User: Fold these one by one.
Assistant:
Number 1:
Amino acid sequence: MLVKHSVLKRRLGATALLGAGAALLVYAVWPWIPMARGARIPRTIVFYGFSILGDVIDHGVFPEFQRQWRQRTGERVELVSSFAGSGTVTNQIVLGVPAQLALLSLELDAYKLAEARVIPPESWRRLPFGGVVNRTPFIILVRSGNPKGIRDFRNLTAAGVRIVHPDPLTSGGANWAIVAEYGAGARGSADPPRAGHDLLLGIWKNVVAQAASARAARTQFENGFGDALITYEQEALWDRARGRLKADVVYPRSTILSEHTLVRIDRNVPRRDRDLIDAFVRFLWTDDAQRIFVKYGFRSVTESLNEGNAAFGRIEDPFRIADLGGWKRAKREIVESVWKDRVLAEMKK
Amino acid sequence: MSAGQTGRGSSVFPVSVLLLVLLPLLLMPLAAVFVFALRGGPLAFWDAIRAPEAQFALRFSLLIAFGTTAINAVLGTLAAYVLSKYRFWGDRTLGVVVNLPVAIPTVVVGTSLLLLWGPIGLLGKLLDPLGLQPMFRPAGVLLAHLFVTFPYMLGAVKPVLDELETTYEEAAYTIGATRWTTFRLVLLPALRGGLITGALLTFAHSLGEFGATVMVSGNMRLKTQTAPLYIFAQFEAGDIAHANAIAAVLALLSFTIFFFLFRFASRGKGRSAE
């Protein structure tokens, strides 16, 4: 009796395992079954982007393109996308991921791709607006109610203000933040290099935490670390639109508008898909696409469309990387020789 | 059947110490995943799971896990058989090498696969012009998982083979059985427990693999993104709810697998004691 019972139990266990395994297998292969019967696999666009683009591309811009393309040609196309830090995306592409388009946070990353011979030098400059798809200014996030009374970058240098900052060695956003800080100090000053350096040093003396990416810095801040965070306006606005923002946005008197550069990796585009990629690239600069960017909190390269988002704050003296001589020069003269060589050394004193 | 209950002295103290340590270490984090996953209500949870990207990631992970398990069941058993039955020059070294994946960080596995098969890798450079590029494709993910989980099948099967008396095999040969027949009728039934345990372990590890996958997959949504990568991507994008829903599903799957593992393991012991 006892033996039979245990045999029965064993059988039952084995059957349950087999059944569970089979059920999982059926579930896993399900979507591929009709495809095997000859359904056509849709053409795809492989798109890599830096982190804050995930929502707007996946749920805003691409679905609209997909709809219009279908209307025009009757063909259904799909997007294959991947989002990570701008530097990570760049390195992945250098290593050979099949990205066809990449929207990078920093033009410097486009130069890196050109250096690695993934794309022809400065090929992105031939795109509309020099490859810049959209912009967003760098702003200061402070605790609700602004208890430290922060109104501008200058106030960040006051004693007792604790700042969370992403690390410029790994983060594109951090590089933008550094040139924003330097530029804000330098502009309108009698001795720009000195004023820029002083503001940068003052701010960095108060940096209490450095995170690997703008996103990670954001997470630290959200978890209650620090009094202020310098970050993309888009992130703050998009969070606020979804009722998720638990902080106040402070617009500095003078700050930089970050510009996000599109690159086309033609070696990953089969000839038969050229038309599709061309169409999508063109679409990114149409008013339809730009309006979607605006809705998601990015500032359009078409200035007139920016009235479409009432949440955009006013910046008295906005500037761009071109005002600082372009990224190559800014990287060398501001990030490397001022921030890295001088500010970091002086901070230790 | 039930072991234990043969406590000498009070078990209250050691058991409560163990529980006190395990609670924050193991049990509470696992519980937190479920609490957070269901925070937005069951409807939000359901929506998060039904998202096409999430569904793809789950299915893709399962397919890779099935593939990995099937292939490593064969390869692992072969390796176990060879290492257990034959003595040859370098057999010890080979025994260490096949177990190496347990010790190597998975990210390193991913990097080395890229440096070998990737478009700029040693072999990949030659294959790339032929259009045979395994990296950043499902095949690359499968390769990484085969590598990472290889030792589990081996580890489950080899001890059984080591202990198995060769007399049965020899008896089979003396009555004219071929090697294959002997394997099928003599060895395989004895290996059943080990095979199942190894398969479950392999499956579970493949399902949760992150380090190597993130390097070789290209992390493309709807194409090569596995469930763990999906969780991380959602987390990075600040979408904790979506991340947690899939995390909860993965955890549930792992619990189920573990439940079966435990049953088979305890039964194996019960049988050998009979």
Note: Chain A has a mean pLDDT of 90.
Number 2:
Amino acid sequence: MKRFDCLKILASHLTDELAVVALGGLIDEWHRCRPGNKNLYLKAMGAVTPVAFGLSGALTHRKVISIDTDGSMLLNMGILATLGNERPKNLIVLILDNECYEVIGLAPTHTAKNVDLAKMAHGAGISNVATVRTLTDFEEKLKKALNSNELNFIVLKLEPGSEVFPEEERKRTNGEEDKYNFVRYIEDSEKVTIIPREVKSIRKIQTSYAWDK
Amino acid sequence: MREEMAEFVRDGLKEAGIDTIITLPDSRLKELYPLLASDSELRYIPVTNEGEGVAIAAGFWLGGKKPVMLMENSGFRVACEPLARLGLTHGIPVLMILSDVGVIGEGNWWGIAHGITMEPLLKAMRVPYIIVKHKNEVKDAIKRAKLHISTSLYHVAIILTGEITKKQ
């Protein structure tokens, strides 16, 4: 099962859902599948699912999808225990598990051997856990998760490999821009202020000082 | 920490508009945690390590909430990597409140390391911080720090020490 094919299926089922996206070859693929500001690209291994959980807690009426990876989840597994206790109803965690650190030369992650992230998630207290190995199975489990009102955790077992795009079709924004794009989208869609406007500078002109003398 | 001081800090957090508490509890602020956990106006989320905690706090901020990460100062060491990524790479800020383990007068030998590393690490991470020693500084510090993370788009730390954390 290829990651790009999974992402195409995922994007085809999304409307207003918020996505927090891990790093690696995944970025340009997701940018192709689902351009726009409802995605937060996060250059922070180990922080992807925690940030997605925070978002789901802040915006309980929105569905949040953590598009995380095996390497990133392995870096900070405590979040499984927190999720198992908190059980946010509007969060779906997808682990794109290619069993390796692909961009640095396919060095295996621990999931290539004995580690089963789905069983660990289940052991941590997450009830709706699945491992998928085919596109049909993924689409079925994804649809179920999108329609459910419970925390879902799906491990996608993938073969290594990334799509290559012409330079001009790759995501060109940096981490600051990605943050601003996402925050402005949240501010507009949720009618909230996250980054405050500057203090009002055009004030009623009123002074007791006689400037003209 | 005395009970009345814990109540004062809780009130300061609420008056500043803090609505979400992410925490890995520590001994110096232990009287504060039950007060926050039992307050129906606050969302209280215990975590497994401080690196996870600051990332969760960042997520709440991105969703328009006003979170704070409450932890022992040793937790700042744990949190440095996600804080660097969130703050320096993305400009996604986290407000932190740290206890003061290891300051001069520390009774626990194991706490000395926390005091040695706290301020140099805060400086290395370019995190502005307020050291709060007196009761009359608490509410102003929380209010200013909460605003500052959203205008500077970078982390701010408040260190509670002196008469705030003393037992008697």
Note: Chain B has a mean pLDDT of 97.
Number 3:
Amino acid sequence: MCTTYSNLSNEVYLTAKEAIKLKREEEELSGLAGMYYNMFLHISFLYFILCICCSSLYFAKAEVARRHTMANFYPSIAFIFLYRILASEQSGKLVAILPFQPFNFLQKVTFRGLSTVMTAQELNILWLQSKGLDATKILSLDVSNVSQACAFAFIYILCTLSIKKIVNDIFGVRAPEGAGGGVDTMLDSPQNQKILSSFGVDANEMKEARKAGKGLGLL
Amino acid sequence: MTVSAISNIAIAIGITEFLGCMFSKFIFQSDSYTRTVEKFERAKWRRDSTVASLATKQANPKSQKSAGKN
């Protein structure tokens, strides 16, 4: 009887101990779950904030890019007028003689505005006349082929690529870092994305295409 | 003739670009542009700080655990 009682009390004691242990484990588990749930909520909230921040950043970036694009647009118009003025002034005139014979596709630029039915001798005479020399007396050896003739357009392109760039580097105003993409940056703004989607353009596909273009150095 | 023609073209392009740059500077000195740039810088800073806190939270979840215990 005594042993049974002690056995029973022992069993009750062990069961109670186990119940306390289980209860403690359950509390720990529920605490852990709560902690992970809190963490999940916190991270989700941060992602939500990040989305808002990104959209406001894209909007601000597009606004800065728009201002820079507009500021660059007016000088471009001025350059179109300048080209027209200079082209009318220099049309049909031989501006320079190239020291090499350009490739066929380049000749379309270098020979632009000059008579295509010109012989090398005629070109030589024209060249000497442009230098202010007597073409009838002196025979220059500068010209060996008529394709060496260089009209205004090629010089204009070379000047645009060199002088314009140098002057812009010295006196120009650069966009702040991250907003210097021009039209490409403007496309990132939520408003423009909406416009693009209204035209049936998938924004994600376009982003991927632009990324690929940047990777290839096209954009 | 040729040297003068080339120099004419070069000078014309240089002056036009210079005037374009001056025009741009005039535009960029305006208050509205300064405000736009400030807004952009603020948005950039906010995005960067959110990204940083998110990265910290994802890389070190124990900090959340200890915070939860406290």
Note: The CA atoms of residues 11 and 64 of chain B lie 66 Å apart.
